[in-house]
Amino acid sequence: MQTLVTETRGIAQLITLNKPRQHNAISLQMVDELLRQLDEAERDPALRALVLRGAGGNFCAGGDIGDMLAARQSAADGDSHAFFQLNRRFGELLQKFNHSRLVVIALLEGAVMGGGFGLACIADIAIATADTKFSLPETRLGLPPAQIAPFVVARLGLSQARRLALSGATIGGHQALEIGLAHQLVEDAEMLEETLEKQLQSVRACAPGALAATKQLLLASAQVSSDEDLNQLLDRGAAVFSDAIQGCEGLEGARAFLEKRAAEWQC
């Protein structure tokens, strides 16, 4: 890998976006490497969480200008799909991370812009420093936030998404916390590490299968638009619950509760 640094820490895979000179701008190569890391992490039964962060004091400042220039040259050479493919590939990344069985944790500091904003929106748990700067600058560049828009709306609601995307405004950590973009605010990078360890302890206490099932049910709940959808989801939930309570994790959870001890998830 040339754009990422990885580390396994117990139940978590830590992935650091590692292009500090470009404020960790996302290139196609980085997208490919992130997808490869996600695939490897999801196939490791020992992992329950995936942590995203940026090197050099910034999370991610958006798309890589080098890829934009290369796509422009390809378009000039007759490839009419160059920009479509460049843009759509990042949407695939967001979608796969959003639906991962793993708990995705984002440590946010410095610049969180454009595509970085999108990554923050698909994090199950987002922890930011108070001085982090969040921005959707695309419209100021003559562009729409095409791939991140659905994830921004899902995270913030349509009203806040409109406010930020249609003004290109920059907000700080406190506003991000108020609107639900960040879930927890800390004072500095050192506290990011301390808070991450506490979050991983919480995730470690949860059963891997129950975490994955819960995440999928929550995502499906956000898509319910009719009584028919709701009935189908409740049926699905009952089936998942039935399997879980009769399975290894459910039995261990019940035993641990009755014996007043921490559960040991070794299924």
UniProtKB/TrEMBL annotation:
CDD domains: crotonase-like (cd06558)
InterPro entries the UniProt entry points to: ClpP/crotonase-like_dom_sf (IPR029045), Enoyl-CoA_hydra/iso (IPR001753), Enoyl-CoA_hydra_C (IPR014748), Enoyl-CoA_Hydratase/Isomerase (IPR051683)
Organism superkingdom: Bacteria
Record-linked PANTHER family: ENOYL-COA HYDRATASE, POLYKETIDE BIOSYNTHESIS ENOYL-COA HYDRATASE PKSH-RELATED
Family, per entry: Belongs to the enoyl-CoA hydratase/isomerase family.
Name of the protein this chain belongs to: Enoyl-CoA hydratase/isomerase family protein
